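Class, discuss our next protein.
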Amino acid sequence: MHLPPVKRPGAACALTRWEALTLVLRDGRACLDNNAAERAMRPMTLGRKSWLFAGADAGGERTAAIYSLTETAKLNALDPEDYLRQALERIAEHPIKRVHELPPWNLTGVRARLDQRNAAREGLCPTPKGRT
């Protein structure tokens, strides 16, 4: 594709990335922003000061592992608390050769994650007074 010469450096830079810039026009699944990623990181940002003194490097590594498991459960539309409860109950006596059975996509019987937006629409969650 031939692009006309541009006198403004910002526009020239944008034109060199034309394929990436027009991706949202070609593929409706592409996002214009990174709000989902920002929202997913929010709990970690809010808790940063609390975890500053996790004890040691091992405490930080354990915290990261729990966050990974929690976020993976959320991505698989499972209730993270129920998933962690079931996984931790099973892991002590679970054979190491069958650890592949414990990720959220393989563990059966875990409660589905409640989407609060849908629950409010369906009347499953109480709404604050004055709101409809």
About this structure: The chain has a mean pLDDT of 76. The chain has seven helices and no strands. Residues 1-32 form one domain.
